[in-house]
Design goal:
Layout: H1 4-12, H2 16-22, E1 24-28, H3 30-38, E2 43-48, H4 50-55, H5 57-60, E3 66-68, H6 71-77, E4 86-91, E5 105-109, H7 115-127, E6 132-135, H8 145-151, E7 159-162, H9 165-170, E8 176-185, E9 196-200, H10 209-212, E10 217-220, H11 232-248
Parallel strand pairs: 2-3, 5-6, 5-9, 6-7, 8-9, 8-10
Antiparallel strand pairs: 1-4, 2-4
């Protein structure tokens, strides 16, 4: 069973301040836990059902602590409504600053507050081979359980950096594409470089005014109906698909 000490710790990791203090977060579900165990991330503890431990005995030894527990205990500790597999407590890796000299495509998130949206965007970045996302300090915490669940393992392959955005974008030598309701259509863009920053704004307010001056090209997804706007995760997918498709033609 999960001891009271570990249960209390895991429950505390639902909140950002305790994740920051402990430098730990947790991952739930069979597939995501297996991806963590197969990675080079450090697993402090693994709590799993008998079936999971028997089936994946060869990989569970990586965890510093392994304990068998029931699915009910996993549900009590985590956020899933059902979990008949495992929950892993993982050490947060040392944060690294983003290098402005990196080439290729980089997503930039300005005050994206919804954890589900952030997790979806991480997964989209992974799908399109984008390795870095730069986030404003007030963007949702990437180790929030809802982010980890929505990212579905992609958080292991996409590196997130939290820092002030204006100084980075203002001094960039790469194009800075900003997603706006008005701008050049992503369907008919002409690219001059294979790479750049793709800036996506807050769910309700869009890109903040302080970043507008650093955006070199305003782009938009043309609407053919009457919807007021698109979810930021959907917009990220459409924009990435168009820009990366065009860049492959260069």
């Amino acid at each position: 069973m999960i001891s009271n000490k570990w249960l209390k710790l895991i429950k505390s990791l639902h909140l950002k301040k305790y994740r920051k203090a402990e430098q730990l977060f947790f991952v739930e579900g069979e597939k995501a836990v297996l991806e963590v165990l197969a990675s080079d991330w450090q697993v402090s503890a693994l709590f799993a059902t008998e079936h999971f431990l028997q089936r994946y005995a060869s990989v569970t030894a990586k965890a510093e602590l392994v304990q068998q527990c029931s699915s009910d205990e996993l549900v009590k500790a985590g956020t899933f409504s059902s979990n008949d597999a495992a929950l892993a407590v993982v050490k947060i890796p040392t944060a690294t600053g983003f290098s402005a000299h990196l080439s290729g495509w980089v997503l930039v998130l300005d005050q994206v507050n919804d954890p589900g949206n952030l997790g979806t965007i991480i997964r989209i970045a992974d799908w399109y081979g984008i390795k870095h996302i730069v986030c404003s300090p007030d963007t949702a915490d990437c180790y929030n359980p809802k982010v980890i669940a929505a990212a579905k393992g992609s958080f292991l392959r996409v590196q997130l950096h939290y820092q002030a955005l204006q100084p980075l974008l203002a001094t960039s030598t790469l194009p800075v594409y900003g997603a706006y309701l008005g701008g050049e259509s992503v369907h008919s863009l002409t690219l001059t470089e294979n790479g750049g920053f793709i800036v996506l704004g807050n769910e309700a307010n869009g890109i903040s005014a302080e970043l507008e001056g650093a955006v070199s090209r305003k782009i938009t997804i043309p609407a053919f109906g009457q919807a007021e706007s698109l979810n930021v995760g959907i917009a990220a997918a459409v924009i990435c698909d168009n820009l990366l498709r065009l860049s492959r033609a260069l």
